[in-house]
Amino acid sequence: WLLVHRHESHNGGPVGKQLPQQGGPNNTGKVGAAPTPEVAKIIADQEAAWVKAMTTKGADAMEKLMGDSLQYIHVTAHTSTKKDFMTELAGGYSETDLKDPTMRQFGNTVLVLSNAHFRHTGLPDQSRSMAMHAWVKVGNNWVMVARHSTRFEPF
């Protein structure tokens, strides 16, 4: 296994050395290339559709965006399957915002790292976090197969 992305934060800013996109002679240090413009647009559109589905309780749209093997890790470390998350989605989110995304492509997989903000309907501010979405091309479609979020301090 190769560590493909490392980004730590303290009060929202990066800490430590950012890994380079260029590798050594044997690509041992390579982190991943930016996706082609075509793939970047597809993934950006998928991310926008995901945000819309989150805030409109768009279960049909969300069903198509998520892979069947989804592992959805919340800022609390609670892990949901696709079935679990579809139930959780019914509770609704009044706000979901992803900012400053960076994308790295590894063959048929694209990792997207964003500053994220989520608020459940009717509840106080939920989380400001760093979220990573893993999109995999299955057939002709890109689906989210993993999501992990780490909350910024204060909790």
Task: Explain this structure.
With 155 residues, this protein is α+β, with helices and mostly antiparallel strands. The protein contains three helices and eight strands; from the N terminus they run ββααββαββββ. The strands form two sheets. Strands 4-3-8-7-6-5 form a six-stranded mixed β-sheet. A two-stranded antiparallel sheet has the order 1-2. Mean pLDDT is 76; it is low at 1-21 and 23-29. It is globular, with a radius of gyration of 16 Å. The two termini are 31 Å apart.
Which short descriptors sum up this protein?
single chain; 155 residues; alpha+beta; six-stranded mixed sheet; two-stranded antiparallel sheet; 3 helices; 8 strands; 23% helix; globular; disordered N terminus
Order of helices and strands: EEHHEEHEEEE
Low-confidence stretches: 1-21, 23-29
- Number of distinct beta strands: 8
Going by helix content, strand content and strand pairing, the class is alpha+beta
Query: Major β-sheet, in short?
Result: 6 strands, mixed
The mean pLDDT is 76
* Separate helix tally: 3
The share of residues in extended strands comes to 35-45%
User: What is the topology, as strand order, of the major beta sheet?
Assistant: 4-3-8-7-6-5
Shape category: globular
Cα-atom radius of gyration: 16 Å
Helix content: 10-25%
Distance between the first and last residues' Cα: 31 Å
